[in-house]
Amino acid sequence: MNILFSNSIGKRKWGGGEKWMVKAAKGLAERNHNVFLGCKKNSILMEKASKEGIKTVGVNIHSDFSPTNTYKIKKFLLTNKIDVLICNLNKDVRAAGLAGRLAKTPLIFARHGIQLCGKKLKHKITLLNLTDGIITNSQTIKDAYMKYGWFNDDFVKVIYNGIKTNKNIPNYPIEEELPFTKNKKIILSAGRLSKQKGFIYLIKTAKIAKKHNNDWIFLIAGKGKLKNNLLQAIKDDGLENYVRLIGFYDDFFPILKISDIFILPSLFEGMPNVVMEAMSVAKPVIATDVNGTRELMIDGETGFIVPLKNSQAFYNKLSILLSDKELCRRMGKAGKKRVETKFTYKKMIDNLESFLSEKLQKKAK
Q1: Which residue spans within 2-125 are E strands per DSSP?
Q2: What three-state secondary structure class fits 356?
């Protein structure tokens, strides 16, 4: 198959959708498919894709209506005889999807890692006319879309994310890099420093922990526009010894390896990759009840699922886990087994490849 992924995310942005596209493109290319990834020139996405050996194409889609880009993409689709076009954002669907229809590309899909389609007429019109379906990573997202009454049952396909398991993880020089964690129980969280990720509620949890003189420290890995706001909130509550922002990690696994518990305070997600990563290295997880969490985790078995914005609930579950090493070990082991059974990288690529192949065969008939 000749496949083009289109992702118009900003140059300095990198998230779960971008991570999935790079992994999916690489996995399909390794199976001898001819794969391209279209994105903004000199972007983080282009840099990471190129490092993985993926063929990249500079596409600067800035808005829903982009005649120049639509023409360029149409020309690329025809020249390279693209069989499958997979679009990331809604503006990718409207600019690249339109190009695909004009080029008579056999298959066009929107890929939704989070719920990108609201119950708006423009979403209904563009998705039904410019795509052949939606690929998502969560049954809860599919269920939400099906309630709109727009799509038949096979229009939305759930393909779970997957990660490589049993990888060799290098040791993290914790005494050099994070000396302030000595003799502390490490509670790790990670993600883009944005409102969506709910880190302010983690800071409120640390405030509760401080009242009880717990030997805990909360580490938040990531970067984003809310960094200064979070630092100010930490300072205002005198939590400098309880919460630290430790920046972005290209390789997140070494810091995961030295943590005691992973915590996800997000307000909304698709299928949270970072939770999957934590489970893959046998870390118990406490996560908010957002899209995908209950499909990935088993509450009370691989960790705990708590209500959104509930810092007291986070504190209560942390107290249970951090006072019981055997429970931590057991939940971590159960999480690792679940990822190795249901959420592997190979399974993700197998499912994606077979889905696209079957759809192409049906289209050909």
Answers
A1: 2-6, 34-39, 55-58, 84-87, 107-112
A2: helix
